[in-house]
Amino acid sequence: MFLSTVEKQLDAKRRIVLPQDFRAAAAGPFDGVFCFPSVEADCIEGGGQALFDTYLRLIDELAFGDPLRTALETSVLGGMAKLSYDTAGRITLPEAFCEMLGLTDHVAIVGLRDRFQIWPRDSFLVHRGRQRDIAREGLPAFRAEQRALGVGGQS
What is the pLDDT of residues 82-111, one digit of tens each? Predict the structure, then answer.
């Protein structure tokens, strides 16, 4: 599982060291991670074989020629890079990703259970604030809905 948020600095060659527990969570058929520009936010999304397989299953649920399938194939599969670790456990982010997302120096690497995201640090701070607001507003409503349906644990 990818957990926690860490800040790292990109070096001049756009390399960062992924946390050891992230590298362990992504262990798979090659010594590295799959990364692509996220379809959800202005960041890089990454993970191991499990994330790649999740997207393949999702895409396969859609009929060939479906516009959403084509958009996901183009955005996820067409945008994906297999990034191998060097001997120091670093990955080198593609220049195109860095330019597209404004990744220049300090980044936040955010664990999201089955995936992680790499954000420009300042952009992530704003995003995290918005997500906290959504969680604060949404969780009580979600729990109330569960209670009304008679499901879920007690709050």
Answer: 999 998 889 999 999 999 999 999 999 999
pLDDT band with cut points at 50, 70 and 90 for residue 67: very high
Strand partners, 117: 45, 110
Q: How far apart are CA 115 and CA 3, in angstroms?
A: 9
Residues in the chain, how many? 155
- Map tokens 């996820």 to a residue: 76
Half-sphere CA count of 141, side-chain side, radius 13 A: 5
Nearest to 56 by CA among 41, 36, 27: 36
Q: Which CATH architecture has domain 5-121?
A: 3-Layer(aba) Sandwich (3.40)
CA–CA dist 147, 34 (Å, integer): 40
| Closest to 101 in 3D by CA, of 129, 121, 125 | 121
Question: How far apart are alpha carbons 94 and 58 in whole angstroms?
Answer: 25
CA–CA separation, 147 vs 70, rounded Å? 39
Which residue in this structure is represented by tokens 């569960």?
146
Domain ranges in the chain are 5-121
